Amino acid sequence: MKLYINPKNTLGHINPELQGHFSEHLGRCIYEGIYVGEDNKDIPNVNGMRCDVVEALKQINIPVLRWPGGCFADEYHWKDGIGPKETRKKMINTHWGGVVEDNSFGTHEFMELCRQLGCKTYINGNVGSGTVQEMSEWVEYMTFEGVSPMADLRAKNGHEDPWRVDYFGVGNENWGCGGNMTPEYYANLYRRYQTYVRTYNHEKPISKICCGANVDDYGWTDGVMSTCFRSPEFLHGFMDGLSLHYYTHPEGWIEKGSATEFDEKVWYKTLSKTLYIEDLINHHAAIMDKYDKHHKVGMIIDEWGTWYTCEPGTNPGFLYQQNTIRDALVAGLNLNIFNKHCDRVKMANIAQMVNVLQAVILTDGDKMIKTPTYHVFDMFKHHQDGELVESFIESEKIGLEDEFMVPSLQESVSMDKEGRLHITINNLSADKAYNVDGLIADAKILSVSGEIVGGEMHEHNTFEEPEKVTKRMFKDVSASGDRINFTIPASSVLHLSIVL
Ligand code: AHR
User: Fold this and answer.
1) Whole-model pTM above 0.70?
2) pLDDT value of residue 393
């Protein structure tokens, strides 16, 4: 198979945020998975955050973290999560498992987590059941410097300095769990609520994200955009991003399917359904273009990933699932697609970071494992902040059912700030390796190094066998002049780094 790369033709900037994460008050994501409490003596922690998890996440350069939801966001009242822990209100997390939420992880704890991770902050506000005043005061509490009721309250609660809020989401899934609204109704609320998401420090502006569509609900995109952009004065500083949610459900929304027990048909079906995100990006972007010709509004895919039937014996409301080589491919495909659409896609957040859905980390008490998806992120991190480079890879159509045929190979290429090329290639075949003959236009290759995540499609890590799937060195590449040659094994994700 031929691979062609033209390093002289750069096609856009790859925002680090394309490899963002999402953490919701759902199951064991926040509690147990990340936050174990300041007084926990059994699990090493810094200010309540698990050291093992934070260390592992730092390794993959988490660029941005979205919180507190998801559906939870539109039921969350931020004032319940500040002040002395013993006086914080307890509530039932009605959406997710009906468990008690004691609000011990709130705004201060989230900001502390982001400080430890060194990542940007993405706060999702409450439109569904919250007021404009509540949203406005939350922004003031987090970001206002000087004398104000909320800044004073923040100082009283132990944090004199304002924090930086990089992104603020005005509601979540307001077409569904966030209030069951129509696009026009939500868009009018967006116009109103966003007015009070004020940037107090103009050196650190808050990017405002409007709630976008679910999957192929193009009517939502059109309805929201047309209502929001009806008056030309709203064109600037009014909407920085429009979200899109798309999950890969191999067997459909009801059945979903097992995370670890699937056959080859389901393997291809899963990958084919994953690739569908590219159609969604193109179609939603075309509608956005009608109202936003200069691409001022970024597409923010703030929930993506696999969603299977939860692991047997676990609380169905906790969405805990295992993660196999199939998930590694799903991650590799999505991340390559986001790179290729970096002109429009400005952020993407995998759902979710720890213990929920396509998690990069799973925990059990004081034990922690990195999933195959984690190792893919670890390879793709080299694309962060790079320039997308023109590339093309030859492939054949493979699969077992006409409806779910996929290309055998898929790639994206970027150039980093030091001038190194990073090629990430997915081999979607469950059983066939491909020899790849690459040409890098007008280049003289000085050296190549490689790393790979792959194996038999069901392979996954367990607490008993935590290193079954991991990132391995890939040395089987030959390079000479402007040519490289290698064979990519079946069901694998490969990263090559090339010094020119
Ligand atoms: O990630 C789980 C849920 O999926 C989120 O809470 C919601 O936004 C989406 O439906």
Assistant:
1) yes
2) 98
